[in-house]
Amino acid sequence: MGSTNVLVSSPGKQPLFSFGVVSDVQHADIPDGHSFIGVPRYYRHSIRVLQRAVQKWNNHQNLNFVINFGDIVDGKCPPDQSLDAVKKVNNEFQKFKGPVFHLIGNHCLYNLPRDILLPLLKIPAPNGQAYYDISPGPEYRIVVLDGYDISAIGWPQVHPKTLQALEFLEKKNPNSDKNSPAGLLGLERRFVMFNGAVGREQLEWLDGILQDSTKLKQKVIVCCHLPLDPCASSQEALLWNYDEVMNVIHQYKCVKACLSGHDHKGRHCIDSHGIHHRSFEAALECPPETDAFGHIDVYDNRLLLCGTDRMQGTEMYFNP
């Protein structure tokens, strides 16, 4: 239990900063189950994974912050337990001795609407939006995207973003169950209700952030619950308009990596522009006494993911 997938850094080289990562805890006080394709899910054990993660992050002593990549409580959590369950998992995150930054996922939004969820997670964006950026130091900026900006879940039923998402799904997915990709081919299988899109205003915000980062000579790490490239995800787990987002990102040389959750399997690839894409293994799918979390050491020319157990260590080199 708790074995570290160690990648050795260059002797004498200290990272510019380091941060913890975990994704898809999806805790619920219910018996174990399976995903829709039959992968085992350990709803009660997943909080133990998080507890061990927080303990290890605190023992590390040199982590500057933690990023949770979304889905802290599962959609199968009984509705009358949703608020308490989110608070319970969030309390475990708060035991980390430093800042914790959250991304929202579909399972978060199945449990609580944005107006309750975002204040609980201290997500610092206005008007129900959940995208923001942080600068851990002068050399880097971390951009957090809201992959459910345009979504049929989380917003009020009559909200323009909900109506836009439902209209989009009606055009793209002929199934009566909009969570089903049945009959959809290839990349069109992403057009399901448990995914979402980045809206126009957020795309413009992202473009402005990348312009600013370019002027400041900052490197950028983009984080989104939903993966942004097919090579790092199943077709069913992609952001609806990942191509639009990447068209913005590819206009700039400052973005070095895109990190995500949602896919659960854990994948790494490098796209045609040299950007690393890493989706993380899910804490939810760890059998008892196994783990999936890690931390990333950030250098001038690489990100070094040190994973634990099921989270594979990954070296992400790039041109500084």
From TrEMBL:
Q: Which Pfam families match?
A: Metallophos
Q: Tell me if Ribosomal protein is a UniProt keyword of this record.
A: no
For whether the record's keyword set contains Hydrolase, the answer is yes
The EC number(s) this enzyme carries: 3.6.1.13, 3.6.1.16, 3.6.1.53
Q: What is the protein's given name?
A: Manganese-dependent ADP-ribose/CDP-alcohol diphosphatase
- Keyword set, alphabetical order: Hydrolase, Metal-binding, Zinc
Family annotation (CDD domains): MPP_Nbla03831
Xref: Gene3D superfamilies = 3.60.21.10
Q: Cite the record's note on assembly.
A: Monomer.
Instruction: Please state every residue range assigned to the domain named Calcineurin-like phosphoesterase.
Output: 18-265
The reactions it catalyses are: ADP-D-ribose + H2O = D-ribose 5-phosphate + AMP + 2 H(+); CDP-choline + H2O = phosphocholine + CMP + 2 H(+); CDP-glycerol + H2O = sn-glycerol 3-phosphate + CMP + 2 H(+)
SUPFAM superfamilies linked? Metallo-dependent phosphatases
Q: Which GO MF terms are attached to this record?
A: 2',3'-cyclic-nucleotide 2'-phosphodiesterase activity; ADP-ribose diphosphatase activity; CDP-glycerol diphosphatase activity; manganese ion binding
Q: Which organism is it from?
A: Salix udensis
- Cofactors per UniProt? Mg(2+)
Which family would the database say this protein is a member of? Belongs to the ADPRibase-Mn family.
Xref: InterPro entries: Calcineurin-like_PHP, Metallo-depent_PP-like, MPP_ADPRM
